[in-house]
């Protein structure tokens, strides 16, 4: 049935458009995954810096371990 339908230019055009949309969706998914990794790295950096600030405050306040 698909072979018969592909004889029509409109059907081939629809198939091409579907392929384009699938590629676009895959690119968007990859971009979202990349952004999520970047956000996670920023959160890790923030936590590290907060710990460093706490450590410096303890040091400056005369804390002795």
Q: What fraction strand?
A: under 5%
Instruction: Name the quaternary structure.
Output: single chain
- The radius of gyration computed from the alpha-carbon positions, rounded to a whole number of angstroms, is 27 Å
Secondary-structure content class? mainly alpha
Low-confidence stretches: none
Distance between the termini: 78 Å
- What is the H/E string? HH
Total beta strand runs: 0
Keywords: Coiled coil
Coiled coil: 11-59
Would you write up a description of this structure?
With 65 residues, the protein is mainly alpha-helical. The chain has one domain (2-60). The protein contains two helices and no strands. It has helices spanning 2-5, 9-60. The radius of gyration is 27 Å and the shape is rod-shaped. The termini are far apart. The model has no long low-confidence stretch (mean pLDDT 92). Residues 11-59 form a coiled coil. Keywords: Coiled coil.
Topology, element by element:
Elements: H1 2-5, H2 9-60
How would you briefly describe this protein structure?
With 65 residues, this protein is mainly alpha-helical. It has two helices and no strands. Keywords: Coiled coil.
Short descriptors:
single chain, 65 residues, mainly alpha, 2 helices, rod-shaped, coiled coil
């Amino acid at each position: 049935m698909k072979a018969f339908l592909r004889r029509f230019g409109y059907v081939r055009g629809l198939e091409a458009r579907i392929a384009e949309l699938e590629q676009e969706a895959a690119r968007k998914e990859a971009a979202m995954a990349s952004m999520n990794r970047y956000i996670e790295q920023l959160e890790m950096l923030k936590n590290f810096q907060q710990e460093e600030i706490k450590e410096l405050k303890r040091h400056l306040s005369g804390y002795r371990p």
